[in-house]
Amino acid sequence: MTGGAGFIGSNFIRFIFQSGGFKGRVINIDKLTYAGNAESLADVQAAQGDRYVFERIDICDFDAVKNCLVKYDVDCIVHFAAESHVDRSIHGPAEFIQTNIVGTFNLLEVCRQVWNGRNDVLFHHVSTDEVFGSLGAEGYFYETTPYDPRSPYSASKASSDHIVNAYFHTYGMDITMSNCTNNYGPYQFPEKLIPVMLLNMLEDKPLPVYGDGMNIRDWLYVIDHCSGIWAIVCGGRLGETYNIGGENEWTNIDLVNRMCELTAEKTGKDKDHYKKLITYVKDRPGHDRRYAIKCDKIKNELGWKQSVTFDAGLSLTIDWYLNNQAWTDSIKSGEYLRWVDKNYGGRA
Ligand code: NAD
Ligand code: TDX
Fold first, then answer.
1. Which fold, 7-189+221-247+292-308+326-342?
2. Where are the domains of the chain?
3. Which numbered atom of ligand 1 lies nearest the CA of 192?
4. pLDDT digits (tens, 9 = 90+) for 251-303
5. Residue 40, Cβ density class (10 Å: 0-12 exposed, 13-18 middle, ≥19 buried)
6. Can you give the pTM of this predicted structure?
7. Residue 183 Cα, ligand 1 centroid: separation in angstroms?
């Protein structure tokens, strides 16, 4: 696993041990950037003992990745590690090019050398629907939709997707790939829409809605993304990409209003209490208008489907943040960075 200390990776590791029937060992390699929190997996470490190993490694470091693959005889990589936040990619694209493009290339090169034509291995690449660009009011992204990325983040993910595909066609490397819509759930770094809104509500701070609030995203509970990836890793056809989506489109403003209502119910506030905090702010440059995905391929071929409704998922997510304030306090205070310094000697 790469990037297993991040939001989706940490949920995935917990998921495969608890529900996926996984019998092997996970080696989690993660650089621990600002978005990586190895403590998110303290419960897994305690429960799994030496079936869970953490290695602090930058995927761009060829020798370190190679030594790790050899040392643990790795036969499957699920590649989550990335710079993942669109706004950060606008302010500073360099890290996105480095980790998402060069890092993915580096991993593939290590695999090509170490696996050396083996056909009992798999490289699964985790990607995003943002590679397909921006939709108008109608239409959907299919696996066959031409790529049209528009932010440095999505352009870097699109590049990495192409490189992964090239390794399948050129070198015959066993790869699969998935492109997923917006995830939400526990352990999401508080820079993405849902945790930003929730944590601001809890501190009675303004809720910053970009532009006119009418941009549309398709939301999927993170565990449903994890079960989709697991289905592909276990049974996906080699060289194929699978869309994974929520089939659950919301304008940002409707979503924030719904969150305000649900959170007010849980904190005992008046129904409109949090809605009064909604503040329209300057739009994100190049803000994609709408994402919506068709995911019939994974449903028909692998029998995957979403299992968590949006109201249930939002409720679970709000409860998780309410019950795990130590996790967000540690992130907001920088305590988690100090923990990394203490345990791993300095920041990446
Ligand atoms: P995240 O930002 O929460 O976590 C990324 C993890 O990667 C962190 O633990 C970080 O420390 C690690 N990392 C970053 N650079 C690294 C490097 N050079 N070497 C090793 N580790 C490094 O991201 P996320 O939301 O969990 O996303 C995981 C993957 O899923 C990404 O590839 C992203 O593009 C993709 N994805 C995300 C979403 C979403 O809604 N969050 C949707 C579709 C696809
Ligand atoms: O404060 C905010 N206000 C706001 O209106 C934030 C953080 C976001 N937004 C808007 C921008 C988007 O239209 O909400 C929408 C969702 O924003 P993000 O949570 O930043 O997600 P998005 O840009 O859609 O990208 C996400 O989904 C696809 C992930 O960050 C990517 O990693 C993933 O590939």
1. Rossmann fold (3.40.50)
2. 7-189+221-247+292-308+326-342
3. 41
4. 999 999 999 999 999 999 999 999 999 999 999 999 999 999 999 999 999 99
5. buried
6. 0.97
7. 12
